[in-house]
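Sorry, explain these tokens?

***
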Amino acid sequence: MVQCVYIIVCVTPIILAAQMPVTSPTTSDTQYLSLTSFVAKYFKLLLVSAIVGALVAVGFSFIQHPRWTAKMTVQIGQVASAGSVVPGVGAAPTNLIESQMTTVERFGLSSFKFDVLKVMGLPLPNRQNPDSDLIFDSLRAAPSKSLDLINVQASGYSPEMATQTLRVAFNELRREHDKAYIPTIDRMKAELKDTSDKLVAMEKEYDSVYGSLKRTGDQAKGQAAPHDVFLANVVATISVESRALNLRKAQLEEALASLRTYPTRVLGDIYVADRPSTPGKLLYSAGGAFIGLIAGILIALFLNLRRR
């Protein structure tokens, strides 16, 4: 319908321009009908065409299945870099799992849309299935003002279908992002566990060495022995290594904090309007009347040309 209006609007002025009054350089006689007389002569035809167009458009609105559009905002997941964290000084630098524009482009890929239709149990588009065609054509994403947010929308012939489309599309996006997110998080968690285990073992060793040093010191009554010097060096070494492990543990815990590292997620709920997104009957009637009027003008021009 929109394409028809566009074509008619573009063509009609050209035809009307050819019918405008033309005055000869040597005479004031009008070669063709003026616009006013043209409208007066074919007024009934134009009126009937507009009314018929409006009625046909309203009838078409009853035939067309209403559509609902669902919308959601997705926050792209990020992972903090544990190596640059200074606990108590600054936040950990973060990296998005995937850039904003790459994620937007992903929603436009035919392969991505095919996967969504497959999960929903629908055939590929152009196979006489209106649900598949509508979902394939309407599923899209756009970047938001924030560099880690994108806005996604899809249409369906029911609110449930539109909502399900976005849920499946998000799950497919999350599945792709998790391929990079989960292995990174697993490595960081494994390193955190290993660091914690080393700290526990080192604290036990520290307590054991420090206890031995204290006992030998008490027995020697203040006289330092070579063995005591060795134990003191061991205690100092353990202390340095413990501080390094504690720092690394704090870095990993800071990087794994939910505010620093999180998977791709939906912000808020999926929104679907109570009313369908298809044009209402009033808009249909106005568009139909306009198209009917243009068609009437074309018919009147054709009749005028034949009578010359």
